[in-house]
Amino acid sequence: MNTILEVNDLSMDFGGLRALDHLDLNVVEGEIAAIIGPNGAGKTTFFNCITGICNPTEGEILISPPGKKRNKINGLKPNRITKKGMARTFQNIRLFSNMTVLENVMIGRHCRTSSGIVSAILRGRSTIKEEKDVVDFSYNILKKTGISHLVNEFAKNLPYGAQRRLEIARAMATEPFLLLLDEPAAGMNPQESRELDELITRIRDEDNISILMIEHDMKLVMSLSDRIFVMDYGRKIAQGTPSDIIKNPVVIKAYLGEDIDA
Amino acid sequence: MIKAREIKKSFLVSIWFMFLTFPIMVIRVNPIEKIVEWRWKNMLVVGIGSFLLSFVWRYMLKKKEAGEKRAETGESGKTFLIQRILEERRFYIPLVTGLTIIAVAFPFIFSMYQTSIMTTALMYIVLGLGLNIVVGLAGLLDLGYVAFYAVGAYSYALLNHHFGLGFWSVLPIGAVLGFIFGVLLGFPVLRLRGDYLAIVTLGFGEIIRLVLENWNEFSFGPSGIANIDRPGFFGIQFSLQAASIYLYFLMIGLVIFTIIVVNRLQNSRIGRAWIALREDETACQAMGIDKTRTKLRAFALGATWAGMVGVIFAAKTTFINPASFTFLESAMILSIVVLGGMGSILGVIIGALILILLPEYLRAFSDYRMLLFGAIMVIMMVFRPQGIIANIRRTYKFNE
């Protein structure tokens, strides 16, 4: 198994506050990994650091895309990291609300296409073909994520569950090798979160995309993930398979705040 | 019960309006005969007028709110008339043919004065469409757009004055200079967003104007540059009348060219990136779009169009000075974009025609011209903040 994401000794300070404290973490190819932890544990900050939105204070982030050399991505801009093959979704949905569903996904194709202003104005044969490819590719992703019937709706008019799906679809359009999902099931009902379970498994199995997700829905985490990382106060306090984690006293203490015997 | 409350509200409104307009509508001081005239009749008119209008106002507000609610629940199956016309071919083709005939016949039917006003309106259409790229598509509030307009105008005036270069050779130079200035000003500015960007661009607009005003050796200062050549046609010199018709058609050509360019751009890879940037900067970057480059492209492209229209402006008026490039001009172009509908080509065209032609033709009521202008702006922003024509996104059809 190849490690595709390797985070060593990562720390992040916001002024005097240490949001991430010497964090080590890795994701291997083809797995679904989950990060759990109480609110304010630094999970989203961790995502922001590895996607380039925040610049970490210490530590290194290394990625090795399948078939490519290992390289360090500290301090790169978010768009460069996305181009290297890590795409994310957001905890508080951040769709382009005044664009249609299809256009949202087409934005994901931006970094894999190249036509500029001049070719857009001249609209030559290669531009038309590229545009057609973008449309077809995006529509296919919408079919995969099960929202192709909403293709021409404005993103803002979508029901909540579909918006979450669209975020995933948009990230998938960038052809990532690792998909970072920030609370994909937040606000979903049990039915929707079961469907999400299926979708995530399918993305991993059919598209060969590894997944690292932050999630609070324990049922989903336990059934989906191969490995779980537990964070508290910016530190990693445990890692292991779901069955290990569920028995781990440190984890239980972090969640319940006291001893199990008490 | 409700009726009584409504009447009370309207009554208060009318009292308030009578109070507000008291100094200008009622009191008139006659300095020659040294008497003060009290025109109580005007006060009565204002009172009754605002009393009645406030009912209309509230009715419209209610209607708008109901419409919003319907849109939220997704029940609004009603498409706008204009949208329907644009979609259906059998309306669309006669409409375009009709417009073409009117546009071609216009300078031959109407006087030179009318043609000249129309040419100005066409110039503002192009300026509006240019600024629409920056403000409407990319969402960068640029309050110094007129700076690039000035760059274009002065590049033609100076090159013509010193080197005798003709209109056609300077037109591309003006565009390129506009582009270069767009990039130069864009680089330091574009890391800012929202209000900060607006203020810095406002500053840059003023800097350019002040430089032109004070650097006498370079730009001849406030006295400006006169006797700029009108555009020629392979060396043919036109009479004044022919020249204005020629300019009119030149502008028609430029408008069509601009429409094609903007239309193609807004449904292209770059255009979508601009809109995404307007919608959410962070998400946009996370989806792999280079923020700085995308912004710079929008800024520079908008500036290119301003540069081009600047050259035409100098050629049309044959005289330019810094007074033509004040902040008011930037505000006017911005109003065209906002009133017409941000991001909508048709909206910007209608907006420009209204805002440029209306004050011209309202000269008869010249006393109330600015009042009407202000009232239209306020009413538009209250009842239709998305502009006359809201931006419509392209829809795609899939059959499987």
Structure description:
The complex is a heterodimer of chains A (about 260) and B (about 400). Chain A is α/β, with parallel strands linked by helices. Chain A has a single domain, classed as P-loop containing nucleotide triphosphate hydrolases (Rossmann fold). In chain A, about 40% of the residues lie in helices and about 25% in strands. Chain A contains ten helices and ten strands. In chain A, the strands form two sheets. In chain A, strands 6-7-8-3-9-10 form a six-stranded mixed beta sheet, sandwiched between helices. Chain A has a four-stranded antiparallel beta sheet with strand order 2-1-4-5, with helices on one face. In chain A, a hairpin with a 2-residue loop joins strand 1 and strand 2. In chain A, helix 3 packs across helix 5 and helix 5 crosses helix 6. The model of chain A has no long low-confidence stretch (mean pLDDT about 90). About 0% of the residues of chain B have low confidence. Chain B has two domains: about 70 residues; about 270 residues, ABC transporter involved in vitamin B12 uptake, BtuC, CATH 1.10.3470. Chain B is mostly helical and about 400 residues long. A two-stranded antiparallel ribbon of chain B has the order 1-2. Classes of the chains: A alpha/beta (about 260), B mainly alpha (about 400). At the A-B interface, helix 2, helix 3, helix 4 and helix 5 of A face helix 10, helix 11, helix 12 and helix 13 of B.
| CATH class descriptor name of chain A | Alpha Beta
What do we call the CATH homologous superfamily of chain A?
A: P-loop containing nucleotide triphosphate hydrolases
* Principal-axes shape call of chain B: globular
Helix percent of chain B reads over 70%
Percentage of residues in DSSP E strands of chain A: 15-25%
Low-confidence stretches of chain A: none
Percent strand of chain B equals: under 5%
Order of helices and strands of chain A: EEEHEEHEHHHHEHEHEEHH
Biggest sheet details of chain A: 6 strands, mixed
> What's the N-to-C terminus distance of chain A?
42 Å
